[in-house]
Structures are given as C-alpha cells and as structure tokens.
C-alpha cells in the first residue's frame, strides 16, 4: 500500500509540474520573405530560437552579439536548422554606449530595411556596472535597448509597417521606479525588477510616440525559461538552478513562442504598446500603465544616454 501511495504521489507531482510548464505555441505560419529582422543577444537562449523560427519563415536575420566567436557558431547553427543562408551577425555590446552607436552607424550603412527589431538581450540580477557607469541591469536591459531603438527608429519608420518587440518579465510588478535613483544597484533582484518595469514603460511610450507612423511596439514576458543566465553566478548556484529550471522552467524554444507571435501575427496589429505572454495579451498592474511615468522615464533616459 505504501508503494502505491508513493507511485500515486509521484504521478500527481509529475502531472502538476507538467501542467505548470504548459505554454501555447505560435501557430501562425506567416512568411517573412524580403523582411529584415534584428535580434539582440541572438546567439543563445530565446534569442537564438527566435532567430531560427524567423529564418525558417524566410527572413533575413541579423543577430547582435558582443562575443564574436559565439556569434559565428550561432549563425552556423541557425543556418543549418532553418535552411536559410541569409543569417549573419554584427558585433554589439549593449553595456557600452559607444559600441551601440558604432553598431547603428554600421547597420544603417549596410542595411536598407529593418522590419522587426527584437530587444532580447538582457542581464540577470547582478551587482555590476556598465562601461558608462550605469548599473548593469538598468544599463543593458533598458538604456542599451533604448538608445539602440532610437538610433534605428528612422529606418523602422522608413520600412513601415514595422515592429519593435522588447522582452520583459512579470517580475516588473515587485518594484516601482525611483527617479531620484534610476541607477539603483543595491539589491540585485530589485535592480532587475526595475529594469523590467522600465521595459514595460518604454514599450508604452514608444507606441505613443510612433502612433500613426507605422511602427508598433510590444512588451513580452516569455515565461521562466531554461536559458544560460546562470553563467554569471557561482558553480554551486548554477547546479542548484539547473535542478530548479529542469523541474519548473520551460525550454527556450517554448519561451520564444510569444516573441515569434508578436513578430508575425496580424492579430496584434491593433495592440501597440501592449504586454503579452503565452501568445496572448496579458494584464499589467495599474501602476505599470501610468503614461506620465512612462513619459518621464523616456525623457530621463534621453538625458542619460545623451540623446536629447
């Protein structure tokens, strides 16, 4: 009898874990022939799986990556999996404003189209600083993509209708922004949450500013994904998280589905500024929909990256 109870408990636990990891897949098979897609951090994780999926649809896919060796290997793999040779990489370090500006100058010289920009790259909860003395999370996750998007916005408008998809996280709800200390870098988890909230505000303000100009913006929570973010931590933490991620987190391919959905689906066309997860719109906390805060963050970000 004890053995039977053990088996039943194990089966129930397995089914619960299976249910927790269930996610929708993007079933839209729309082609992207003739379209150009730029994905930051497209050499691994969600970014790489997104690159494969969009390349399979015929898009010209460019991945922005700071590690050239990893980028080369990723491009080779993406080409093999997608059967699309129109995949390439460009060096980009989102922790360095000069690198971002040089990347954009080079991109605009070489590429005549930009149909879809996917702000995918991100830093986890780490206490570190960018080359420009911004906290790593806020500097990469928000400011780096803010500058990148703004410098490429002209090309996005020229190629309209175009889309900007920025990856965020539902952890945004655990923090609010402090405009007296946007560069907060004290408690790693809170720093990360603030950067993800900034992604939400950025998407909303970008949608407002580009309304009627053919550029749509979407914020995506991909779910909790079995990606390589733990490489920034100790070996013991990586081992622990490997077990936890195996049990509760979803594979990268599944995590990419909502990003792919927002990139190709016609059903999101009227939802610019929206927040999506599991291939459908999701509700934001009321404080995360404050247009006044979104505008204030935009203006502060312009000053910080010396764009104004």
Automatic annotation (TrEMBL):
Keywords noted in UniProt: Oxidoreductase
Domain of life: Eukaryota
Keyword Phosphoprotein: no
GO molecular function, one term: oxidoreductase activity
Coiled-coil regions, chain positions: none
Matches recorded under InterPro entries: NAD(P)-bd_dom_sf, SDR_fam
Protein family (similarity comment): Belongs to the short-chain dehydrogenases/reductases (SDR) family.
Protein name in the entry: Retinol dehydrogenase 14 isoform X1
């Amino acid at each position: 009898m004890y053995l039977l109870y053990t088996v039943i408990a194990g089966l129930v636990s397995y089914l619960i874990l299976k249910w927790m990891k269930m996610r929708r897949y993007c079933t839209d098979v729309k082609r992207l022939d003739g379209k150009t897609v730029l994905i930051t951090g497209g050499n691994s994780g969600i970014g790489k799986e997104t690159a494969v999926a969009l390349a399979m649809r015929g898009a010209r896919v460019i991945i922005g990556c700071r590690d050239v060796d990893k980028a080369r290997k990723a491009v080779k793999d993406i080409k093999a999996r997608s059967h699309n040779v129109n995949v390439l990489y460009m060096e980009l370090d989102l922790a360095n404003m000069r690198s971002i500006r040089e990347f954009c100058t080079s991109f605009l010289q070489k590429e005549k189209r930009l149909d879809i920009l996917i702000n995918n790259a991100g830093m986890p909860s780490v206490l570190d600083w960018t080359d420009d003395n911004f906290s790593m999370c806020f500097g990469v996750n928000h400011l780096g993509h803010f500058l990148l998007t703004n410098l490429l916005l002209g090309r996005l408008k020229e190629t309209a209708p175009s889309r900007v998809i920025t990856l965020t996280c539902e952890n945004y709800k655990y923090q609010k922004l402090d405009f007296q200390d946007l560069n907060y870098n004290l408690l790693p988890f809170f720093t990360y949450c603030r950067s993800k909230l900034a992604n939400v505000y950025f998407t909303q303000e970008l949608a407002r500013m580009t309304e009627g100009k053919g550029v749509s913006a979407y914020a995506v929570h991909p779910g909790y994904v079995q990606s390589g973010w733990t490489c920034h931590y100790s070996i013991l933490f990586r081992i622990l998280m490997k077990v936890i991620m195996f049990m509760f987190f979803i594979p990268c391919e599944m995590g990419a589905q909502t990003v792919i959905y927002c990139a190709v689906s016609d059903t999101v066309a009227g939802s610019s500024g929206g927040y999506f997860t599991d291939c459908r719109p999701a509700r934001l906390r009321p404080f995360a929909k404050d247009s006044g805060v979104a505008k204030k963050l935009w203006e502060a970000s312009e000053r910080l990256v010396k764009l104004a």
